[in-house]
Automatic annotation (TrEMBL):
Lineage per the UniProt record: Eukaryota, Fungi, Dikarya, Ascomycota, Pezizomycotina
Cited Pfam families: Methyltransf_2
Gene Ontology BP terms: methylation
Limits of the O-methyltransferase C-terminal domain: 242-371
InterPro entries: COMT-like, COMT_C, SAM-dependent_MTases_sf
Protein name in the entry: S-adenosyl-L-methionine-dependent methyltransferase
PANTHER family, A to Z: PUTATIVE (AFU_ORTHOLOGUE AFUA_4G14580)-RELATED, STERIGMATOCYSTIN 8-O-METHYLTRANSFERASE
GO terms assigned for molecular function: O-methyltransferase activity
Keywords: Methyltransferase, S-adenosyl-L-methionine, Transferase
């Protein structure tokens, strides 16, 4: 058997050749540092081969470092002076992901400790233990030989789910959360709203993903569409009503309504965020024709069916039939710890009618159990990637992306700012069930090139239908 470093060198060589061949055949530019360098890797063959090269080059690089040097160089710091990166460094100058190292000295049975064991010893609880150790695993510090083990971080409020008991709160020595601050000042709201637009300019976060990645036209033929379609026998006359909850200043709503002429979207967000947002919607006809509208509404307040009927239209008896076809929560729930997500989901219930869809668009993190066909228990949800059905293993990310998702851009960053988190498919399922068993996840769709997946959840009050 050849040495791992030789295997990696061959993998890199073959995959780089594949990238070069595909780019040349399609007449596309090769990667460079020029001003006009390509900004994304397409088509799929190129982006898949790129993932292989990035993981293999990183592994080769790490293998060629001494173990102690590896730990030291990967010891990225959460800087207590930077908002959002404010978990104080731990002893020995190492970041929190490494704290469980201390506990591996306790001679665990079979050389393994469970996430729960480490969580009890560190007093950090199983969930945070698991998240921190999974981040450390992306840097080759630990291994998870069987799914469901690991670890630590937040010292002052170790198990808190409150968004005002975070590293951000400590660094600012403040009690209001970031959203409290944003919601209370027009200038902060404007700044935040424009940061959302910039965030959405990155190809993997583009508003085109929810517009292209979900089969919106199929809703027109669904037997469960809204009351205003009741007497319309022809699909082309029907309208589909979408509530974009936490939709900021409507960049996703505008993409949806532009691309699908049968969609009418109401955006709900904090008053300071939606103020004057109509003026920024392009094309302006979307606002003139009332296809994109805005409504100040707190995420945690119960939806008011009567108010929504007045906005979207009703047929007089509008209590039992669907008014809103789709409740969209894009990139909202990852800002909140479980108990608050449960509250947000429950606040939709007064307006949910049989067959209504809750679409949650958020990251779906890799779960070591997902790749194992023998361990699919609890993941009966259909997984669709590029329109094809796969097992949950299809959600596995290349290591370089997972490392990024677990640390700087997402999971641990969400912990430091909001005590919030990214979730695996299993964790999403558990969250919906905790919120209400009538919220039944049916599918998870991973649009090509999108960092976020679409979880399609149906409101099914009857047990027989679930
Ligand atoms: C990360 S942004 C996502 C924005 C948009 N959905 C997107 O996909 O780009 C989260 C949104 O939740 C909104 N939000 C946070 N707390 C809220 C609250 N209590 N009530 C209403 N909206 C809230 C924020 O203003 C923000 O627009």
């Amino acid at each position: 058997m050849s040495a791992r470093i030789m295997e990696l060198a061959q993998t890199i060589s073959a995959s780089v050749a594949e990238i070069d061949k595909t780019l040349s055949a399609l007449g596309l530019q090769s990667p460079s540092f020029d001003e006009d360098a390509p900004t994304e890797y397409r088509p799929r063959e190129v982006s898949d081969a790129r993932d292989v090269v990035l993981d293999a080059t990183a592994e080769l690089h790490d293998l060629l470092l001494e173990p102690l040097f590896l730990v030291k160089t990967k010891g990225a710091r959460w800087d207590a002076n930077k908002p959002g990166h404010a978990i104080p460094e731990q002893q020995f100058g190492l970041p929190p992901s490494y704290r469980p190292l201390q506990h591996t000295r306790h001679d665990p049975p079979n050389g393994q400790l469970s996430f729960g064991d480490i969580g009890r010893r560190t007093k950090l609880g199983e969930q945070m233990t698991c998240r921190l150790l999974r981040h450390a695993m992306t840097m080759r510090i630990f291994r998870e030989p069987t799914p469901g083990m690991m670890l630590d971080a937040l010292q002052k409020w170790p198990l808190s789910q409150e968004p005002n008991q975070t590293g951000y709160s400590l660094s600012k020595n403040t009690s209001p959360t970031i959203y409290d601050i944003i919601g209370s000042s027009p200038s902060q709201s404007a700044l935040f709203a424009s940061s959302m637009v910039v965030w959405a300019r990155q190809p993997y976060n583009a508003p085109s993903h929810p517009a292209d990645g979900y089969d919106w036209p199929a809703l027109l033929s669904s037997p469960d569409h809204n009351v205003t379609n009741k007497n319309k026998t022809n699909n082309k006359d029907r309208r589909i009503n979408v509530l974009d909850i936490g939709g900021a200043r409507g960049h996703v709503a505008a993409a949806l309504a532009s691309q699908h002429p049968f969609l009418d979207v109401v955006v709900q967000d904090m008053a300071a965020i939606v103020a004057g947002a109509e003026q920024e919607i392009t094309p302006p006809e979307l606002v003139e024709q009332k296809r994109v509208r805005f409504m100040a509404h707190d995420l945690f307040s119960a939806q008011q069916p009567r108010l929504l009927s007045d906005l979207f239209g009703h047929d007089g008896d509008g209590h039992e039939a669907i008014v809103v076809d789709v409740f969209l929560l894009r990139w909202v729930l990852h800002n909140w710890a479980d108990k608050h997500c449960v509250a947000i989901l429950r606040s939709q219930i007064p307006a949910l009618r049989r067959g209504a869809r809750v679409l949650v668009m958020d990251a779906c993190m890799s779960d070591p159990a997902d790749g194992n066909d023998d361990d699919r228990a609890g993941v009966e949800v259909e997984v669709e990637v590029l329109g094809k059905d796969f097992g949950a293993g299809a959600l596995a990310l290349p290591l370089w992306k997972e490392r990024e998702m677990r640390y700087r851009s997402e999971d641990l960053n969400m912990a430091a700012i909001f005590n919030a988190r990214e979730r695996t498919l299993r964790e999403w399922k558990a969250l919906f069930t905790e919120a209400d068993p009538r919220l039944v996840p049916k599918r998870v769709i991973k649009p090509e090139g999108s960092a976020l997946a679409i979880l399609e959840v149906l409101w099914l009050p009857s047990v027989d239908e679930r």
